[in-house]
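Please, structure for the following, as tokens.
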Amino acid sequence: MDTITSSIVKELSKKAYTIPDDRISNFLENPDIFNTYSDSDQAVLLMLLYNSLSSGPRAAISWIHIPSQAFKLLVRQYSRPIESKKKDVYNKFHALTFGTYKKGLSAFNAKFNGYLAKLTIAKIDIDPSLILNQYFKALESKFPS
């Protein structure tokens, strides 16, 4: 049985790279679209979805065999309203300080730039001078002027 299972997994892993990107993005916009695709394509999508999750969400969908149902369950259980996410990113950006950051300046810069990217994606406009002021404010505790 293990040989059959491992050969199936290998075959599905190879097939995962044959699903065109536009079909994946179509799935994210309309999960029910994959119900019309072959069972093997659905299995590949479910495997990709499952492998991209941490243990909690994995457990939530482990009993589901249809990708669209798994995706909808994840969205329902783990999604927060967009305004809540925007506020959360905005608050984290303004709360970031180098004084509590132990990984060095380059890692801090990566985190700071990551928050800027998330704010941009969330369509939150921040004046460049405010970004610069926030950066200096975040560094001030470790590098006083």
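The two ends are 68 Å apart (CA to CA). The chain has two domains: 2-78, 82-140.
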